[in-house]
Amino acid sequence: MADCIFCRIARGEAAAEIVYQDEQIIAFRDIQPKAAVHLLVIPRKHIENLYDLGKDDQQLMAHLMLSLPRIAKQQGLDAGFRTITNTGHGGGQEVWHMHFHLMAGDIPAMQ
Ligand code: 5GP
Ligand code: ZN
Questions:
Q1: Using one digit for the tens of pLDDT, what is the confidence trace for 34-43?
Q2: Distance 46 CA to ligand 2 centre (A)
Q3: Which of 60, 91, 100, 104 has its CA 20 to 30 A from that of 67?
Q4: What range defines the domain where residue 95 resides?
Q5: What confidence tens digit (pLDDT) does each residue in 6-44 have?
Q6: Has residue 110 been placed in a domain?
Q7: Number of domains the chain contains
Q8: Does the beta carbon of 15 lie inside 6 Å of ligand 1?
């Protein structure tokens, strides 16, 4: 996806404050943080959202989910964190490249 902003970040074509990356995923700071720590964790592969996942994505999703607590620990979030993923217009999704918000510290109330 040439013009997807998160694909561009994953390819190193757009700037982001990356805190973790490996061959499958990247974690970077949200440009408009809504908590003291507000990261976005994404697959390098362009997947629109949870509805767009296929059977081939099982290992990727396991890796992404297992990485969330590791990244949180790296950030010193020993007391815990919140993950949110918005799916589709009905879920309030604004960027159409699947991402998990990882937040801690002054986290906003659930709506
Ligand atoms: P959504 O509403 O799709 O779940 O969340 C999209 C998130 O991406 C928002 O929290 C927004 O601040 C963040 N965001 C949008 N564009 C950029 C960008 O170019 N760089 C970074 N780091 N975050 C972005
Ligand atoms: Zn993308």
A1: 999 999 999 9
A2: 4
A3: 91
A4: 5-104
A5: 999 999 999 999 999 999 999 999 999 999 999 999 999
A6: no
A7: 1
A8: no
